[in-house]
Design goal:
CATH architecture of the largest domain: 3-Layer(aba) Sandwich
Helix content: 25-40%
Number of domains: 2
Radius of gyration: 22 Å
CATH class of the largest domain: Alpha Beta
Structural class: alpha+beta
Mean pLDDT: 89
Number of helices: 9
Low-confidence stretches: 1-26
Shape: globular
Distance between the termini: 28 Å
Strand content: 25-35%
Number of strands: 21
Order of helices and strands: EEEEEEHEEHHHEHHEEHEEEHEEEEHEEE
Strand order of the largest sheet: 5-4-14-13-12
Oligomer: single chain
């Protein structure tokens, strides 16, 4: 006999979205040369402008540098800073020659203070050389679907006028990927950090104080790239990432766009990553599966799971209060 599990939900009201390229909130209009807002679960674009335009992205490149370091499983290694680290230009955590820091400390310095000396130290330690590390960066970019990205260094500096080239969409994809890493999420959301021999580092990401639902982010600037910023936020179960390239008041823009979308959308989770106990069945999922809904239409909805007699999950669907049935894609 087929078994059906029905779970009742009560949801608040939301309005239907319109896809716009600028936002006017509190009588303010924001400009960004390129920007994108995506659903972190399926990388669907919610809104954007010039989302695939390739350009310099500056220090938001360090999100890739950090995630490669964290995925090396060597975060507690203690590293002796090379002499070249002290010669790096731009933003710095002021590493001294032969200073000893853990890879984890360097990741904090990288993300909170955008230390180019930290980036150099991480890259030469993990990659064996800058070129070796850059190969890892580009390999990871290809692996996670960053189709229009080419990294040339670990810091994001526009060295020899080249720098790291990417797009707003690709960097939002990277942020979505990185935020699934527990250590990256913790570091990126940290407002201040202290370690041995180092003064307290304050996170340059002002959005952390401006918007309580912020999951983290990374700022960037070079003369060529101008201001760049990538961030993530979660509310009502909905996980969003946003990237702006050449946006003067990026913190406010990100906050207002998050408020816009969180006031209108929510995520209904059907399966979480790992083992899910559904009725008397155990269902394994590699990632979170569900649907994004405008809540005004879907209040008092029903989640339905349908199984075969052998326990195979056949399909899932959401039934609205007015009887509309929406199938949930099991294979996104």
């Amino acid at each position: 006999m087929k078994k059906i599990l029905i779970i009742f939900l009560s949801l608040l009201s939301l309005a239907t979205l319109k896809n716009t390229k600028t936002i006017d909130n509190s009588n303010k209009t924001y400009f960004s040369e390129c920007y994108v807002i995506i659903n972190r679960d399926n990388l669907e674009v919610l809104e954007g402008k010039n989302i695939h335009k390739v350009r310099s992205v500056a220090s938001i490149s360090k999100v890739m540098t950090c995630i490669i370091a964290l995925e090396s499983n060597r975060i507690f290694d203690v590293i002796v800073a090379p002499n070249e680290a002290t010669k790096q230009i731009g933003s710095s955590i002021y590493i001294q020659k032969n200073e000893k820091l853990s890879l984890l400390d360097l990741c904090y310095g990288l993300m909170l203070r955008s230390g180019n000396d930290a980036a150099y130290t991480i890259a030469t330690y993990i990659g064996g050389s800058i070129d070796g590390f850059v190969k890892k960066m580009n390999s990871k970019a290809s692996e996670i679907g960053m189709k229009n990205t080419k990294f040339t260094n670990a810091s994001g500096l526009d060295i020899d006028e080249i720098g790291n080239l990417s797009t707003a969409y690709d960097m939002a994809v990277l942020m979505s990927y990185a935020l699934e890493n527990v250590w990256f999420s913790k570091i990126s959301k940290t407002q201040s950090y202290s370690c041995k021999h180092i003064n307290t580092w304050i996170n340059k990401n002002k959005l952390l104080k401006m918007y309580e639902y912020t999951d983290g982010g990374k700022t960037g600037y070079t003369y060529k790239a101008k201001r760049t910023f990538v961030s993530g936020a979660t509310k009502n179960g909905l996980k969003i990432a946003m990237c702006t390239l050449n946006c003067g008041n990026d913190f406010e823009f990100h906050k207002n766009m998050y408020e816009k979308y969180f006031s209108r959308l929510a995520f209904i989770e059907f399966l979480k990553p790992g083992i899910n106990q559904i009725y008397d069945y155990k269902i394994e999922s590699k990632k979170r599966i569900g649907i994004v809904v405008p809540i005004e239409k879907f209040k008092n909805g029903i989640k339905l799971y349908k199984f075969s007699s052998s326990g195979q999950l056949l399909y899932m669907e959401y039934i609205t209060d007015d009887g509309e049935r929406i199938k949930v894609n099991l294979y996104e």
